[in-house]
UniProtKB/TrEMBL annotation:
Its EC number is 2.7.13.3. InterPro entries: HATPase_C_sf, HATPase_dom, His_kinase_dom, Sensor_HK_TwoCompSys, Sig_transdc_His_kin-like_C, Sig_transdc_His_kin_sub3_dim/P, Sig_transdc_His_kinase_ChrS. This is Oxygen sensor histidine kinase NreB. It comes from Cellulosimicrobium protaetiae. Keywords: 4Fe-4S, ATP-binding, Cytoplasm, Iron, Iron-sulfur, Kinase, Membrane, Metal-binding, Nucleotide-binding, Phosphoprotein, Transferase, Transmembrane, Transmembrane helix, Two-component regulatory system. The keyword ATP-binding applies. It catalyses: ATP + protein L-histidine = ADP + protein N-phospho-L-histidine. PANTHER family: NITRATE/NITRITE SENSOR PROTEIN NARX-RELATED (PTHR24421), NITRATE_NITRITE SENSOR PROTEIN NARQ (PTHR24421:SF10). The lineage of its organism: Bacteria, Bacillati, Actinomycetota, Actinomycetes, Micrococcales. The chain crosses the membrane at residues 24-43, 49-68, 80-113, 119-139, 151-171. Residues 211-407 form the Histidine kinase domain.
Length: 427
């Protein structure tokens, strides 16, 4: 829905321009009326004719100040048409006294198109003014009659004046309508832009919230899980008076807590994950599997290039995927052996984590991806890759992340897989 607070800007600009123009129309109108009065005086009009003409001119000025000027600013049609009727009548009175009164036509024709907003009313008023002027020019004040010869002479002249007034007025009205239409379109475009800006901002906020939530799930939440499990194991060791084992557990608790603190600082700073700061992905994976083995006592085998040539975004995706896969092994697999393999070829990079645990449910409908796997899938998809989760041949679970090669160069020379097998600390 378009927000009205962002709209009407262009219309306001158009209204502001109109308000400035109206002031100049006022000046032009006053000049024409005063010049008409002066022309009557200069032409030697006197006596009753001069008094009637000046009274009519004064009436035009007074009614304009009372109704016309306000109507020009408010666009109120009732006072506008009241003024126009009075102005036309007074103009005809002046023209009936002397032909110089036709100078007022320049002002009144213009005001008809400026003040009236209805086309039919504009045309009717223009026709009435032109026809009335022709009759007034043919009117003889001495005899009180309309002279046919004078009417025959005045009618063509006023016909030309009417045609000119209608043509110019219609063109001006069309131009104004186009300007108003364009102003409304600009209003709508500005409002749409504002709405899109708000939607983009909200989408950005939501994306950032989801990113932070995923980072917390992949780092801090998993670290706290490790701390809780290690603390419980240390407590059990103390109950058995196995103080050396408890010390080892507590040392791991401290190490894990420090890593969590580093992850939290990296998250706040929006920098690379702590394990990747100053390290390659291969080194970060080695530390990850070593800690997993120490914390769980599970045998873990790592096969990965020492320095895989990947972008920083791909490093983050693969490291977080490995963390999530190992967390799921810890929570659900009840495995005794885990293998983490990172390999590269011409098609891209594959991270594969397999375990010999209980595996996925036989009934596929009974398996529902949790928040961690959904987040992993979204991370991988953002890099153009895909996530595969399924059973491992011979039992257990297999999780594979495949990232396309893209513009990344092929495997660098000298890359060699390094494998390590570990058995963790006290169970």
């Amino acid at each position: 829905m378009v927000d009205g607070t962002a709209a009407d800007a262009a219309t306001a600009e158009l209204d502001g321009t109109w308000a400035r123009d109206v002031r100049w129309w006022d000046v032009a109108f006053y000049v024409i009326v005063v010049l008409s009065a002066l022309a009557l005086l200069a032409a030697g009009v006197s006596g009753r004719a001069l008094l009637v003409s000046l009274a009519a001119v004064a009436t035009i000025l007074v009614t304009y100040l009372a109704w016309g000027r306000r109507a020009a600013r408010t666009r109120d049609q009732v006072p506008a048409h009241v003024y126009l009727v009075v102005a036309i009548a007074c103009t005809l009175v002046v023209v009936g006294q002397d032909a110089l009164g036709t100078l007022l036509l320049f002002a009144v024709f213009t005001q008809i198109w400026m003040l009236s907003e209805h086309l039919w009313a504009q045309v009717v008023l223009c026709v009435a003014l032109a026809a009335g002027t022709a009759l007034a020019l043919a009117f003889d004040p001495q005899t009180g009659r309309v002279e046919p010869e004078e009417l025959a002479s005045a009618a063509p002249q006023m016909g030309v004046a009417l045609a000119f007034a209608l043509s110019l007025g219609l063109w001006t009205a069309h131009t104004l309508r186009q300007s108003e239409r364009h102003a409304r379109l600009v209003d709508e475009l500005r409002a749409t832009q504002a709405e899109l800006g708000r939607a983009s901002h909200e989408a950005g906020v939501l994306a950032e919230r989801e990113r932070v939530a995923q980072e917390i799930h992949d780092t801090l939440a998993q670290g706290f899980t490790s701390v809780v499990m290690l603390a419980q194991a240390a407590s059990a060791d103390l109950d058995r008076d196995a103080t050396d084992a408890a010390r080892e557990r507590l040392a791991l608790v401290e190490s894990t807590a420090r890593d969590n603190l580093a992850e939290a600082r990296a998250l706040v700073a929006a920098s690379a994950p702590a394990p990747l700061q100053g390290s390659t992905l291969g080194e970060a994976l080695r530390r990850l599997v070593d800690r997993f083995a120490d914390e769980t006592g599970t045998r873990v085998e790592l096969a990965a290039p020492e320095s895989p040539r990947l972008s920083s975004a791909e490093d983050v995706v693969l490291l977080r995927s490995a963390q999530e896969a190992l967390t799921n092994v810890r929570r659900h697999a009840d495995a005794t052996a885990v293998r983490v393999e990172l390999r590269q070829d011409a098609d891209g990079t594959v991270l594969e984590v397999t375990d010999d645990g209980r595996g996925l449910p036989v009934d596929a409908s009974g398996f529902t991806e949790g928040y961690g796997l959904r987040g992993m899938r979204e991370r991988v998809a953002a890099e153009g890759g895909r996530l595969e989760v399924g059973p491992r041949p011979g039992g257990g679970t297999r999780v594979a992340v495949r990232l396309p090669a893209g513009t990344r160069p092929a495997d660098p020379a000298g890359v060699r897989p390094a494998a390590t097998s570990r058995t963790g600390g006290p169970r």
